[in-house]
Design brief:
Elements: H1 2-23, H2 37-54, H3 59-70, H4 74-90, H5 102-113, H6 118-124, H7 136-146, H8 151-161, H9 167-175, H10 178-185, H11 197-222, H12 226-232, H13 240-250, H14 258-268
Helix pairs in contact: 2-11, 3-5, 4-5, 11-13, 13-14
Length: about 280
């Protein structure tokens, strides 16, 4: 009897931990995915740099205004602030793209408005200004590579993640030299000179080039039919990056297909059923 109770308690404990992890919209270390050790090291240095700068910002003032303007609950505010910090980290690495979410932009503007020295802040934080709308989809791709999304991520970035990658972007990453790609799509701010950001950008470029080679090899062997792609890639190549690349290259006019929407949902986001 006693042993049975212990087993039951352990099962319930593990189940509770799993559910908390699944439904959480705020993850430790910004929910950074694990990459190669050198890449992770530089990402954590960037995150620490950002947290250090945020010490001089009156976050409670930002919170009060945004919660009032958008009628957010405390949990929604915390999730929004979490996504904003992720965005700032990303824009410490990539050049601005078009951001769909006005909430993220308003948080940034509010941070600037309450700053005692706005110019000081602008010099130390990356710009969140609007960039090229045609290239907004690669923001989503880079986001999925960096972070483990949550259900709130989908709420904020769903429109962006539903945009196909620009054909010019795919061509640049497929045919361009690493140095050329870095110059066009990434930037290394002076304030992060002590951080080897190139390790992060190199890793991302290499993985995209590798995925594109594998994708073309698959198409050459099996054809571009979606049913065959999903059938033959179920285990070997079924990743969120590969799915987005495949449909951006070979199903551009139909993007996003219902199959892609379901696949990206399953691969990258917490299923809503677990939250209900």
């Amino acid at each position: 009897m006693f042993i049975g109770i212990i087993i039951l308690v352990n099962i319930l404990y593990r189940s509770a931990r799993k559910n908390v992890k699944s439904t959480s919209t705020i993850l430790p270390q910004l929910g950074l995915r694990q990459h190669a050790t050198p890449v992770d090291k530089e990402l954590y240095l960037l995150m620490e740099e950002m947290d250090h700068l945020l010490e001089d910002i009156r976050i409670t003032d930002v919170q009060t205004k945004i919660m009032e303007d958008y009628q957010l609950s405390l949990q929604e505010w915390e999730s929004s602030w979490f996504e904003w910090k992720r965005t700032v980290l990303m824009f410490s690495i990539i050049k601005p793209t078009s951001i769909i979410s006005p909430l993220i932009l308003d948080i940034w503007q509010t941070v600037l408005d309450q700053a005692d020295d706005k110019q000081w802040l602008l010099e130390r934080f990356p710009s969140l200004e609007q960039g090229n709308t045609k290239e907004q989809a690669w923001f989503g791709l880079f986001y999925l590579w960096l972070f483990q999304p949550t259900s709130y991520s989908k709420r904020i970035w769903e429109e962006t993640l539903r945009k196909p990658l620009a054909k010019s972007w795919i061509q640049d990453f497929e045919q361009g030299a690493i140095e050329e790609i870095e110059e066009r799509y990434f930037h290394f701010m002076e304030r992060t000179a002590h951080i080897k950001v190139w390790r992060i950008t190199d890793a991302f470029i290499h993985i995209i080039k590798k995925h594109l080679r594998r994708l073309h090899h698959h198409i050459k062997r099996y054809g571009s039919d979606p049913a065959k792609f999903y059938k033959h890639t179920r285990k070997k190549m079924r990743s969120s990056l590969m799915v987005i690349l495949y449909e951006s290259v070979y199903q551009y006019e139909q993007y996003p297909s219902p199959r892609l929407s379901r696949s990206v949902e399953q691969l990258t986001f917490v299923q809503r059923k677990k939250e209900e």
